[in-house]
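Hi support team,

I've been running sequence recovery on a batch of backbones for a student project. Most finish fine, but this one hangs at about 90% for roughly twenty minutes before it completes. I'm not sure whether the input is malformed or the queue is just slow. I've pasted the structure tokens below so you can try to reproduce it. Let me know if you need the job ID as well.

Thanks,
M.K.
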């Protein structure tokens, strides 16, 4: 069909429109149509306002598919839009450096902090209190990022002893750690710090005395074992005899005591009887004597009467 130029008007070519949509991110998928607002690839989208009323192209119905700057795992929940996404307000939970407290930050602000600011904000402000790797103490620094500096500089006081545990001193824990590692003393009673001080003359004297005492004791024990025959069951037999002898001895003592007691009783009874006997005898002889005197008296009486006359 031939068409003269004066009669020509707009017509559809049947292909896709492809005009940039108001969102600035997608292209129109309609079949070639009359485009009210043409937008090119470098289209700097402004906020649409009521432009969509006269816009003959599609209206984008997708949700935002942009990647945030700085990136975060939370998707933008807005409708597909022009320009950058609004700052992410999803709450971010982060525990402090020492793990005591949990902080909550808006995602975007946390991600925008520089490292220094982030470390400062994450500190709970309390003592770190993490167990130090080289000793049993807790870090006393204020909640801090990274490993504890006190690990090699623990200022806690620790007791240290000489080998015989007579001498005692207080050292900084860090000094004890250094001493242990340099002297390779781990095999000694480690964390207690025994053996870190050297024994003095007095210690050596006491150790020597103790050694001599133990030696003599050992020799004495050996001698007593040799004298016991047979060597087996020594303890039991010895104890058995011992206990038997003990009971014999105590029984003998008991019998002697009871005999003594009875002897005393008999003696007392005899004494009482003899007192009674001689008392009665005495009384009789006294009355005899009295009677005798009485019988002599009448011979004197007349003379007395004579005197009275
Ligand atoms: Zn879009
Ligand atoms: Zn077309
Ligand atoms: Zn279109
Ligand atoms: Zn986010
Ligand atoms: Zn967005
Ligand atoms: Zn903390
Ligand atoms: Zn320590
Ligand atoms: Zn610490």
């Amino acid at each position: 069909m031939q068409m003269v130029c004066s009669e020509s008007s707009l017509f559809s070519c049947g292909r896709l429109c492809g005009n940039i949509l108001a969102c600035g991110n997608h292209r129109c998928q309609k079949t070639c149509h009359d485009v009210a607002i043409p937008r090119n690839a470098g289209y700097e989208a402004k906020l649409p306002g009521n432009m969509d009323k006269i816009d003959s192209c599609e209206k984008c119905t997708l949700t935002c598919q942009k990647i945030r700057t700085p990136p975060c795992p939370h998707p933008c929940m807005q409708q597909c839009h022009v320009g950058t996404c609004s700052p992410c307000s999803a709450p971010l939970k982060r525990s402090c450096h020492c793990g005591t407290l949990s902080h909550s930050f808006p995602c975007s602000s946390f991600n925008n902090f520089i490292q220094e600011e982030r470390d400062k904000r994450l500190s709970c402000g309390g003592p770190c209190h993490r167990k130090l790797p080289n000793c049993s103490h807790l870090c006393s620094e204020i909640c801090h990022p990274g490993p504890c500096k006190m690990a090699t500089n623990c200022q806690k006081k620790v007791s240290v002893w000489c080998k015989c545990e007579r001498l005692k001193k207080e050292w900084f824990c860090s000094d004890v750690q250094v001493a242990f590692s340099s002297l390779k003393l781990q095999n000694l009673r480690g964390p207690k710090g025994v053996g870190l001080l050297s024994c003095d003359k007095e210690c050596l004297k006491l150790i020597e005395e103790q050694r001599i005492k133990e030696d003599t004791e050992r020799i004495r024990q050996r001698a007593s074992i040799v004298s016991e025959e047979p060597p087996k069951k020594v303890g039991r037999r010895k104890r058995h005899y011992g206990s038997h002898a003990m009971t014999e001895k105590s029984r003998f003592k008991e019998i002697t005591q009871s005999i003594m007691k009875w002897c005393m009783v008999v003696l007392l009874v005899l004494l009482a009887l003899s007192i009674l006997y001689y008392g009665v005898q005495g009384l009789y002889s006294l009355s005899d004597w009295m009677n005798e005197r009485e019988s002599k008296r009448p011979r004197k009486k007349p003379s007395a009467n004579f005197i009275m006359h």
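--
Follow-up from support: It reproduced on our side and the slowdown came from queue contention, not your input. The pocket of zinc ion (ligand 2) is lined by residues 13, 15, 32 (CB under 6 Å). No action needed from you.
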